[in-house]
Amino acid sequence: MTTQTSSKPLAGRIAVVTGASSGIGEASAEHLADLGARVVVLARRAERLDDLVTRIEKSGGEALAIAADVTDAAAVQAAADRVAAELGGADLLFNNAGVMLPAPVEELATDQWQRQIDLNITGLMNIIGAFTPQLVKAAGERGVADLINTSSIAAQNIFPTFAVYSGTKAYVTHLSRHLRAELGAKKVRVSAIEPGIVGTELQSHVTDEGALEWLAGSQETMEWLTPQDVAQTVGFIATLPPRVNLQQVTIMPTGQAG
């Protein structure tokens, strides 16, 4: 096993990152690789993943791309089986795939409601179900493993027209607290990251005009977080001493009031 150093504190660790084809997932995969982890990048867009692996390898890191849709439980389990077979299993899981589709509830955009529930909740649970056994096994062997879930400040604060998205993220935060209580005794740390507005592809999926106007206005009045800002936080959580578990981390743009 690779020996950890101060410059490569995650050397010897196997990190799985979902939603890795863009935004926070992409930036986090690159940062975890820079910290020494072997990174498995998982998302639907195979070409984007291949480009990411190439960049990581050019920077001296190691990465494996697995194209899979997290809402497909069988595909997720197959991905987990491959990680176990080829790399010995994951000991760091960054559960990051998600989508944000705000709209007034009276518009009855039921397809968008379902898409958010499918990806932000069911997809999250598919990944947790497939990889938790690997995390528990790794923690028993090395004394620590990490499950880090991407939530949102919307889990705590009120944003009109974001009700369904916010509800899915409240699920992520509350689930994470329960899983921490359940898995902490087995040396698996569980953290929920709650960012404010981050400049990612999430905004490009928004179709509601009111939400688009609000987002555009906020970009004019404050500097949004970058994916790299969140990636740095993921790396910080994963490199803490095994006795330390940051249960919930809220990361806000300095100019975002709530």
Provide key terms for this protein.
258 residues, single chain, alpha/beta, 47% helix
H-E order: EHEHEHEHEHEHHE
Average pLDDT figure: 95
Computed CA radius of gyration, to the nearest angstrom: 18 Å
According to DSSP, the number of beta strands is 7
Q: What share of the residues lie within helices?
A: 40-55%
In this structure, how is the largest beta sheet organized? 7 strands, parallel
Uncertain spans: none
What is the spatial order of strands in the main beta sheet? 3-2-1-4-5-6-7
Helix- and strand-based class? alpha/beta
Count of alpha/pi helices: 7
Sheet-strand content, in percent, reads: 15-25%
How would you characterize this protein structure?
- There is one protein chain.
- The longest helix has 33 residues, at 110-142.
- This protein has helices at residues 23-34, 46-58, 73-87, 110-142, 163-183, 209-221, 227-239; strands at 14-18, 38-43, 62-67, 92-95, 145-150, 188-195, 248-251.
- The chain is globular and about 55 Å long.
- With 258 residues, it is α/β, with parallel strands linked by helices.
- The protein has a 7-stranded parallel sheet, with helices on both faces.
